[in-house]
Structures are given as structure tokens and as C-alpha cells.
Design goal:
coiled coil, single chain
């Protein structure tokens, strides 16, 4: 029973991770949108390192700030993706472990039944 509760708790954690991942992905998309609006359209299309270099060279603090936010959003998104993957992996392991426990319990139960049957004395057959 405890194991089933653990699996259910893990499922809730996975769902929470996925909700957080969805939220952070939306934040990341908003950051990209901000970068597009506040910065040059070229900046949104090139790699972040080049975009940051471009913003630094032009000295535009707003673009530097937006690019830093974009980098942070990207990092947070990756962290949340990793968290959700770890949760799913752990949950999958727990579910397999639970299935194996149940199979072992059924096997033990069948063994007991067989032992009980073999321990019962058989009546001698008398010729009729």
C-alpha cells in the first residue's frame, strides 16, 4: 500500500513539473517576443552569444538586459525540462518496481497454495 501512495505522490510531482515547465516555456517565449520588439529583428535570429556581443558593441543597455533575461529564461527552461525528465524516469522505475512486487506476491501466494495442496494427506485407494 505504501508503494502505491509513493507512486501517486510521484505522479503529482511529475504533473507539477510539467505545469512549471509549461509556465517557464511561456515566459521564455515572452522573453523572445520582448527581444524582437525591443531589439533589432536580426538579434532574435542569431545565436545568443552573437546577439549579446552585438548589444554590447552598440552599448544599448535595454537590449543587453533583454538578452540577459532571454539567457536566464532559456536556462530555466532547460532546468525545468531536466526536472520533468528526472521525475518521469523515477516514476517509470517506481511503476516497474511496483509491478515486480505484485508479481512476486502472486508467485508467493501460488507457491503457498501448492504447498498446502501437497501437504494434504491423500487417501489410500482401496480396490473395489
Amino acid at each position: 500500500m505504501t508503494h502505491k501512495k509513493d507512486v501517486e505522490a510521484m505522479r503529482r510531482i511529475v504533473q507539477d513539473c510539467e505545469r512549471q515547465l509549461k509556465d517557464i516555456t511561456l515566459d521564455y517565449e515572452r522573453c523572445q517576443s520582448d527581444l524582437w520588439v525591443k531589439g533589432s529583428p536580426d538579434v532574435a535570429l542569431v545565436r545568443r552569444s552573437w546577439a549579446y556581443q552585438w548589444a554590447s558593441n552598440t552599448g544599448n543597455a535595454m537590449e543587453i538586459g533583454v538578452l540577459a533575461d532571454l539567457e536566464k529564461c532559456h536556462s530555466n527552461t532547460q532546468d525545468k525540462t531536466d526536472d520533468a525528465t528526472r521525475c518521469r524516469t523515477t516514476l517509470g522505475g517506481w511503476e516497474r518496481e511496483k509491478e515486480m512486487e505484485e508479481m512476486k506476491e502472486k508467485n508467493d501466494e501460488l507457491k503457498k497454495q501448492l504447498e498446502n495442496q501437497s501437504n494434504q494427506p491423500t487417501l489410500p485407494q482401496t480396490p473395489s
